[in-house]
C-alpha cells in the first residue's frame, strides 16, 4: 500500500464514527481482524479497540475481585502501547474461547495465574497495535518505520517535531500486516511496569460507581430467596404455599432442585415471607455426618490405605530403621468457609429465547453451563455479564448461586435477583476441605535423613468437574453433561489435568533429604467442597512447616539454620529465608512476653518466607508483627504485590485463629460472624513486605501470603509456651 499525505488527509477527515483496530493474539485463531464499515468496529472477541477519538478500550479476560487484575493486566497493554494506563477504559470479557485461561482450558480466574498467563500475550497485544500504528504513520510520511517513535498515544516523526495521534491512524493501521514476531520493549525502556502504583478501579469503588453483583438493577426486577435443605443432599417435597402466596409483595413460591424459592417485589418482602415457610424435607439421601465422624473416617482410611504414591525418593522405611531418632506427628485442619464480604448473588432474565445473567463469578463459562442446566437453553443462548466481585477466594468458581437464579428466572420470565443471606452463605456454601496429615521424620545426629508425608482427604475436582467438563465442550447436548463429568474424572491425569488440590505444596517439598515419600489417601465424607484461597497449599503448608519446626527442635538446632542447610540447590528459597530472618531480627531476642516463629513455603510459583512475632494477652493470642519476604519474579505493580501479600497474611491469620466449620448430624453449626469470626481491624498486626527484585517472568501474589503465616504463628506459640499445637484453629 502506498499513500501520500493528501490521500491520508482525505481518508482521515472524511471518515465518521468510531474506527477500531483489532489486535490478534497468537494462538487465538478465532479472533478476526479487519475493519467492518457497517458497524464501525471489529468483532467483539478482541482485546483492544482504538477509536478515531483516541479512546482505547481493553477487554479484561480475568475478573476483578480485589486482587488487582484490572490494574495489573491493563498496565501490560499500556506499557507496550505506550500510553498512560489511566487512559485505557476496561470492560469485562464476554464468554468466548479467546478468553480462556491457557493454564486451565477454561475462562476462569484462580490459582494466582492471571498475571503469569497474561504476561506475554497482553504485551504482544499492545506491541502489535503500536507497531501497526507506526507502520501506518511511516507510510503517510514516506519514511522508514523503525525511525519513528511513539509517546503518549502519538507516533512521532523522525524529525522529532511532527506527530500523528493514534486515532488518526486506526483505519490506515488496519491495512498493515506484521510479518514475524513482534518485538517487546526491553526492561530498560519500561515506563509503567514495575513503577505503576495507582489502582485504576479505585475511584469507581470509592465513589460507588463500580457495579458489583449486588448493584445490578433492571426494570421490573423481582427478588428471590432460596430455602435450602438443612442437610446437604436433602430435597423439598412440599411446603405451605397457600400461606406464603398471600403475604405482602409475594409474587410466587415453588419447589426447585435446590429447595423452595420465594419471589417478591422487594428483598425484604421475600425474606419476611421466608420466615413463614414450613417445608417438608426428604432427608433420606442427605449428609448425616459430624466433624468427629469425618476425622474418625480419615484415620480409618489412613490406616487401611497407604495412599497413592505422589513422590518417592530413596527408601523412607530403611531411613527410619537406621535413624537415631524417629519423630511422628499428626495434623488436622477443619472445614473452612470463604466469608466473602459480598454474599452469593446473581440476577437472571429469561427473555426472547435466551437468558442474560449478571453475576460476580470467577468462571463465566461455567456460569453459562450452570444457567443452561436449569432452563431449556443451550449455553450459546446464555449471556453472562460479569460484574466486579466483592471477594472470591475460590468460592465463586462454583456456580450454584447462578443455577438457583437461572432456575427461578426460567420459571418466571422476568428479571430476578437472587440473594443469599450471610447465614445461608455460611451454612450452605461449598467449603475448604478438612484434611488429616500423618508425618514421620528420621534424624541422625541432627541431620534429617527421611521424610514421610501421608495426606488424607478428598479432591476438589470431584466436586468441580460437574460444570467444568461441559464448559470445555459447550457444543455438547445437555444430556451428556453428567457423562462428560464422569469421563473427566475417569481420565484424570490422562485426558484431563491431574487434580493436585490435595497434594500441592507437599510434592514440591524443597528440602534436600535423601529419602522422601509423599502419598495421598483419597477419601471423601460427602461434604461439599471447592477451592479456597491457596487451596492445598493452605493445609500442606501448615503440616510441612510445623513439622519442620518440630524436627528442628528435636535436633536441637535453630529453625532457620535447620532449614537453610537443606536448601543448597534452592537459591530463591534461601534468599527469602535469609531476608525475612534478617528483617525480623531473628538473631535478636524477642521483646519480653513474645516469641517468633518462622515458615518458608513456595506456592503458585512464588517464594515466601515469614516471621511471626506473637504473644498471649488477656487469655487470647496476640500477633504483633509479621515480616514477609517474597520473590514473585518481575513485579508489575509494587503496591498490588504489597497489598495482596498483606491481605493473604490477614486471611491466613483469620483461619489460624478462628477458622472452623463444624457439623452435627449433617448440619453446619456456625451461622454468621459471631461464631465464624474474622480478624478485626484492631487485631491486625504490623505487616512488613519485602519484595525481591527479579527479572524472571512474574508469578502469582493473590494467594502465596496465606500458607506460611499459619505455621509461622503456631511455631511462634511453641517457642513461647513449649506446647506444640497440631490442630487448627490455634488456641491460647
Automatic annotation (TrEMBL):
One Gene Ontology MF term: oxidoreductase activity
All residue ranges annotated as the Aldehyde oxidase/xanthine dehydrogenase a/b hammerhead domain in the record? 207-285
Top-level lineage group? Bacteria
Q: Which PROSITE patterns match?
A: TAT
Q: Coiled-coil intervals in this record?
A: none
Q: How is this protein named in the record?
A: Isoquinoline 1-oxidoreductase
Q: Which organism is it from?
A: Marinobacter halophilus
